[in-house]
Design goal:
The protein is built from 10 helices and 7 strands. By secondary structure, it is an alpha/beta fold. It comes from Paenibacillus chibensis.
């Protein structure tokens, strides 16, 4: 855990989902390969499946932007079908019961909830994907709200977090995430940023500007206990 500033104790914490709470690759990679097999079988894509690293490196983007990076040679029809297939296949994967949260996520969230911290999700993912993860891993009673680009129609994580703060009337919060979009969302909304350095999907500059870097999710409890009022 690397701290660069004194944190003020927040009334709320706002979490990214992929790479922060949820081990995305546990559902994404099987779905990813099935998706491209289906696209090829339907005649919508003829090239080999792009490298997994290209998809993992795009996490945190809006879905429409992800396909521009992952298959820039794909047609608009292929991109639209990929949107449909990814959600369908990921929900099937979640229903299969083999997906994973990061270590100590549930226990840490439960402790923070008991201590009176309001917990929220703010993700650039699709609405049913986010709610599917929360339901599958029995987290629904812990969160005061789930905000997603798919549900709320926001174009950036900055706008999504701004909307959350306004609608929930949150006055102080920590933004917790693993991508540069999370750092930007926290900074531009006047929040302290906790950078999650354990997922490893992005490059080493992803979390530049975070107030604190944590190497395990449970470090949040130590930060909260040490934070000033």
């Amino acid at each position: 855990m690397n701290s660069s500033s004194k944190l003020t104790r927040p009334e709320a914490m706002i979490f990214d989902m992929d790479g922060t709470l949820f081990q995305t690759e546990s559902v994404l990679l099987p779905a990813y390969h099935k998706l491209f097999d289906t696209l090829r079988s339907e005649g919508l894509y003829t090239s080999p499946t792009p490298p997994e690293e290209r998809m993992l490196g795009s996490l945190g983007m809006l879905l429409e932007d992800i396909w521009k990076v992952v298959m820039p040679d794909g047609s608009p029809e292929a991109h639209n079908r990929a949107n449909e297939l990814l959600l369908q296949l990921e929900l099937e994967g979640l229903a299969g019961g083999e997906t994973l949260l990061y270590p100590e996520v549930k226990e840490t969230l439960e402790t923070l909830h008991r201590q009176g911290v309001k917990l929220y999700v703010a993700s650039n993912g699709l609405e049913h994907y986010i709610s599917g993860i929360v339901d599958t891993h029995e987290l629904s009673t812990l969160f005061s709200g789930l905000y997603s680009a798919g549900k709320n129609g926001t174009l950036t994580k900055v706008d999504l977090v701004k909307l959350l703060l306004e609608q929930e009337q949150v006055k102080s919060a920590w933004m917790v995430g693993d991508r540069s979009s999370d750092v930007e969302a926290g900074q531009k909304n006047g929040l302290s940023v906790i950078g999650c350095a354990y997922a490893g999907f992005g490059n080493h500059d992803e979390l530049k500007g975070s107030d604190v870097l944590i190497s395990s999710f449970s470090d949040l409890l130590k930060l909260y206990e040490k934070s000033g009022s």
